[in-house]
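<derive_structure_tokens>
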Amino acid sequence: MENFFSTIWAVISTFRFKDAIDILSITLILYYLFKLFRQSRAGQLVKGVVVLLVAYAISAVFNLTMINYILKALFEFTVIIIVILFQPELRQALERLGRNRTFKSLVPNSSQNADSDVQKAIGDVADTCIVFSRSRTGALIVFERDSVLSEIASTGTELNSDTSVSLLGNIFFNKAPLHDGACIIRNGKILAAGCILPLTKNNNVNADLGTRHRAALGLSEESDAVVVVVSEETGTISIAVGGRLIRDLDRASLHEKLSDLIIPGENEKTDLFSSIFKGRKEKKNEKK
């Protein structure tokens, strides 16, 4: 017992402020990794890795030479295997880190146009969606934010043009060659049209949703883009953002939502810690 307490005292006596920062950093990394795994299929892969570790321990205890040798050789390439297996989750985590405004504020972005261009684009899209809703014309319009969508844009036709109701109407006219794909808007300009979006990987999506809505959700899951969808069957206007779908929007609510999401207010707190407190505050308000 005396040796045990002396060991603890030796650790405490040498504990410094930088050690606390080190421990806190590792704790946060493990917490967000665990949270990421729980929200994706990576959780099942982690269970598989745990099973292999248990099998390796059993083979070592019972001296199962061949199994132990194979598993040991497998674990020697653990880093490469983890990168291969968890590539989508690691990419998503790094993109989220890059989109965090706490870090993004340290990197200047000189490519942003004036807010007037973005506001005009929002107004044109809102007006166009109302026309599409009445005529039952399907549409898929993407507003790029922090995540660069150049790879997605390369799957379509580059336009680099100003937005207008007539141009958007021509793009999504049901006999036009670009009407099946998505239109991407960057900094208030139409970057490309006829683009192919990734479909959602969420198996719990409503079965009534068609390919356009699944593509909108898919892109919103992999990036911070805001995707506007007009249903060809019902004329319903929806917004997909953050893997969630906001449905049954009219012209006013669509314009308001797009403005709030794409042109954030000056007093909006979007850093890591304020977003956590904001979420807690919203939960308290829901309980009330």
